[in-house]
Design a protein that fits this description.
The chain is an alpha/beta fold. It is built from 29 helices and 13 strands. The strands form 4 sheets. It has a 6-stranded mixed beta sheet, sandwiched between helices. The protein has a 3-stranded antiparallel beta sheet with strand order 9-13-12. Strands 1-2 form a two-stranded antiparallel ribbon.
Length: 756
């Protein structure tokens, strides 16, 4: 697709999503709050010049700065507005016709001694049509007048932002008798004249008057709701004011969800170094591949004409094979990272705002559930939360979360609360899985820790470098990383209590419960002591990992939101493994987990608990209050689901291979969606194929899933190379990794200095 100025798209094209949400063509529009508008317009002077329609736009604009403003004052006179706290001046100047008076006012601003407004919004025509009864002579005079004004506007455009607002259509059926001569045919003729004259005049000029034609499109959809047929309804003019704010402020404020009018961010030093590294990897891999291919041809087995036997080719040495695998992995990763950058940093592909409807969320949910049930297979083992089952659980949860993100369902509180349970369930599995491993295996070696940390963090570290984002931005990975280290520390600190030791003496079980109680106490203390929590994570270099927008509040909020669920996962694992050891549960194929009576009672309680939680979550009215209760009650639905899924033997013996496949790459899917499925760091939607929303989602989803799967394989391949089992080799690699991160911190500090 050819490139284009997103400002032009914002000012000239778009469509409605639903009734009130305006979607500009190819880019995302930020919804400015009063504080943001003031920060953008501080010490600025804005002038609206024109008729009653421009006055409407003026009022909508100043309400973005101060929502308390009332539409008072002389309708056919000048109206001043000033916000002294931010030194903002916004004036409406009554010039209902494009005539000599308007020309004189504009000319006065072009004189060097006069302070020029920073933004000028002008437009008029309906009064000329009304006063002169729609005569052709009035149109001819309008053309003459706007031709004389155009050079002055261009001169102003060299130092100010100048916008000419085209005339909106009217709803002729309800126009008053005194306005019947204002027809859409006449308005089109005046608009055509203004566009032709302004465009032809600006061809030879460096500065350009921006034609604000998007209001015409908005009016075509909403003018039927007009009270008098001439003036736009309030929601439409508010949209126009928001577009104006985006055009001017996006390049200043740089909001994440406001891609319109934002220039492409310059490459940082770290990004340039990453580009060089991946380029060298690609070149290196090509060279080695060519050398190997030539060697293969030379050593290719040839048939012995006398004996008819084949000679086996020489086998490559392991060192070359490892190097080739390393370069091959980085080569693929480099190409994938280029795609990431093009999707979410370069202004190459389009981005659009999300728009939530119930159908956009629930229909895909039903669709994937049907697919999941269709791919049902028998499990290899029938234990509670066996590997296939946990992969399946991760898979369907991840697919639901993806649909939640792309549909913008976070605006619907009942859905938000249920998704919070799914995120908590991931953390529950973190507690359950890692506790079970350490308890059963008793392996607290460095190799295990490094393997887990590498697999969790590799992709995120690469994205932090390539996409120039802080580590905390990908909040879920820091969350599971910290919780893994907490689980490890809890169990590894003396006395190390594992299943083998506890089987010999039951007192060790009590000792482990003491450890878990201490952990719960620490969690409780930190959750109610924000100051202590922030002090711990504000120390350098921890602060570099957990700060977002200059503070660690976001990290504290994310940690606090699911603070107990990992502990619940650990406790559940302990109880389950104890029951399993005492042979109090039956895990045979097709057998219920407990006796028939106990199983039925527990199953009934589980279903009721599951439904009660859903009813409570669906009746939530206040997100803050519900978030406060969520850490304590989310475990109810998680445990209910586990029991429903595992008590009946026939349910425990099957799993969905469709969901399990996605579960194996769930972490990669969660992280990759930020940039190559969603856009603008999850705030919008990536548009590869404009104009065809369903086809676009299919294509972008296919690429996204393939990329996530490929990255999963790359991570596994590199984990074997970077984290070897040999302790002495591993120590050397750890020193290299420490050097790498030291260099990264140094370059990051240099970047921060240059930015300031």
């Amino acid at each position: 697709f050819k490139g284009g100025d997103t400002c032009e798209y914002l000012l000239s094209s778009g469509r409605f999503l639903g009734e009130k949400v305006w979607q500009p063509h190819s880019c995302m529009m930020h919804k400015y709050k009063s504080s943001e508008a003031k920060n953008c317009l501080i010490d600025k002077h804005v002038v609206f010049l024109g008729d009653s329609r421009i006055r409407q736009l003026f009022y909508s604009f100043i309400k973005l700065i101060n929502p308390q403003v009332k539409e008072e004052g002389n309708k056919h006179g000048n109206i001043p507005f000033e916000d002294k706290s931010a030194s903002i001046k916004v004036d409406f100047l009554w010039y209902p016709e494009v005539n000599g008076s308007m020309r004189q006012r504009i000319k006065s601003w072009t004189e060097s001694s006069v302070a020029k407004p920073h933004i000028i919004v002008a437009g008029a025509a309906t009064w000329s049509i009304k006063i002169h009864n729609g005569s052709n002579e009035a149109l001819a005079q309008y053309k003459i007048n706007i031709t004389s004004i155009a050079p002055l506007l261009e001169k102003l455009a060299r130092s100010s932002d100048v916008y000419w607002v085209l005339q909106d259509p009217v709803y002729e059926d309800i126009l008053s008798e005194s306005r019947k001569m204002i027809t859409n045919e006449k308005i089109d003729a005046y608009n055509e004249a203004a566009v032709r004259i302004l465009n032809s005049s600006s061809r030879n000029s460096k500065a350009k008057v921006k034609v604000f034609s998007v209001s015409k499109l908005i009016a075509q959809e909403t003018i039927m709701k007009s009270a008098d047929g001439l003036h736009l309804p309030e929601s439409s003019r508010d949209t126009n004011a928001m577009i104006l704010m985006n055009v001017y402020c996006n390049k200043i404020m740089k909001p994440i969800d406001g891609s319109c009018c934002q220039p492409q961010p310059p490459l940082t030093l770290i990004q340039k170094l990453a580009f060089c590294f991946f380029s060298l990897s690609i070149v290196g891999y090509i060279i080695i591949s060519v050398i190997h291919r030539n060697n293969f041809r030379k050593n290719k087995s040839c048939t012995d004409l006398e004996s008819g036997e084949e000679k086996k080719p020489a086998i490559s040495t392991p060192n070359v094979s490892t190097l080739e695998m390393l370069l091959h992995s980085f080569c693929k990763l480099g190409l994938i990272m280029i795609y990431f950058y093009l999707c979410d940093r370069a202004n190459l592909f389009m981005k659009e705002n999300k728009f939530y409807t119930h159908s956009s969320f629930f229909i895909p949910i039903v669709y994937i559930l049907v697919l999941g049930v269709f791919y049902t297979e028998n499990t290899k083992e029938t234990k509670v939360l066996n590997r296939e089952q946990t992969d399946e659980w991760k898979g369907w949860m991840q697919l639901v979360i993806l649909i939640y993100h792309i549909s913008g369902a976070s605006t619907f509180l009942p859905v938000y609360m249920h998704i919070r349970v799914l995120v908590a369930a991931y953390l529950f599995q973190t507690g359950y899985g890692h506790f079970s491993y350490f308890w059963i295996k008793g392996d607290f070696g460095v190799y295990r820790v490094c393997q887990v940390l590498f697999r969790l963090n590799f992709l995120v570290v690469v994205l932090c470098i390539v996409m120039d984002r802080p580590y905390q931005f990908y909040y879920f990975v820091p969350l599971v990383t910290v919780w893994f280290m907490i689980i490890y520390a809890t169990l590894a600190i003396w006395p190390q209590i594992v299943q083998k030791k506890a089987n010999g003496n039951c007192l060790w079980h009590f000792g482990l419960l003491v450890k878990l109680t201490c952990l719960l106490t620490c969690i409780y203390f930190l959750s109610y002591s924000q100051g202590a929590f922030e002090k711990i994570f504000s120390f350098w270099p921890l602060s570099k990992c957990f700060e977002l927008n200059g503070n660690v509040y976001e990290w504290w909020f994310r940690w606090k939101l699911d603070r107990y669920v990992v502990f619940h996962g650990m406790l559940f694992a302990f109880i389950y493994l104890a029951l399993q050891k005492c042979q109090m549960i039956s895990e045979g194929k097709g057998d219920p987990l407990f006796s028939s009576r106990v199983s039925n009672v527990l199953l009934f309680i589980s279903v009721v608990s599951f439904l009660i939680y859903s009813v409570w979550a669906s009746s939530c009215k206040n997100k803050t209050e519900c978030n406060e209760l969520h850490p304590s009650v989310s475990v109810v639905q998680i445990l209910a689901f586990i029991l429903i899924r595992n008590i009946p033997g026939y349910v425990r013996s099957v799993y969905s291979s469709f969901f399990a496949w996605f579960g194996k790459i769930s972490l990669e899917l969660f992280i990759c969606q930020y940039h190559i499925w969603l856009a603008a760091d999850t705030k919008g939607i990536l548009v590869l194929i404009p104009g065809y929303p369903m086809f676009n989602v299919l294509v972008s989803t296919f690429i996204f899933v393939c990329v996530a799967h490929e990255i999963s394989q790359i991570t596994n391949d590199l984990a074997q190379i970077v984290v070897p089992k040999d302790n002495s080799t591993l120590l050397k690699r750890l020193l290299c990794i420490a050097g790498f991160f030291s260099g990264l911190l140094l370059f990051s500090a240099m970047q921060d200095q240059s930015r300031h």
